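Quick sanity check, HVA22-like protein:
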Amino acid sequence: MAVPFITRLLTLALGYAYPAYDCYKTLELNTPQMEQLLFWCKYWVLLAFLTAFERFADCAVSWLPMYGEAKLALIVYLWHPNTMGAGRVYDDYLRPFLAAHEVDIDRGLLELRARAADATASHLQAAVALGREFLFEAARRVSSRLQATRSPAGQGHQ
C-alpha cells in the first residue's frame, strides 16, 4: 500500500509541481526563450493527453505490475533536461497523429459544442419553467393563507 502512495506523490511532484515551477521560471525570465516555452507547451499538451487517456483506460492498464512506476519514469523522461523527451514524443507521435485527424477532431468539437449549447438551453428553459411554477405556487399559497387569516376577522366585525 505504501509504494503506490509514494509513487503517486512522486508523480504529482515530478510530473506536475516541478514542471509547473520550471515553466513559471521560464515565463518570468526578462526575455523568455521561445525554444524553452515551446518545449513546455509540448510537455503540457502531452501530459494532458496522457492524463485524459489514463482516465479512460484506467481499468485496463492500472492493474499492470509497476504501472505507476512506469508512468512516473515516462513523465520524468518527458521533461528531464538530459532527455527532453516531450519534444521527441510530441514531434514524432502526437503532432503527426493530430495533424492527420485535425479536421475530424475539429468537426467533432463543433458538434459537441452545439450539442452542449442545445442541452444547456433546454435545461435552462426547464429550470426557468420549474422556477416559475414554484413561484406561482408559493404566491398562491401565501395569498390563500392571507385570505384565510383575514376572513374570520372580517366576519366577526359584521
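Posting the structure with no commentary besides this: The chain is about 90% helix and 0% strand.
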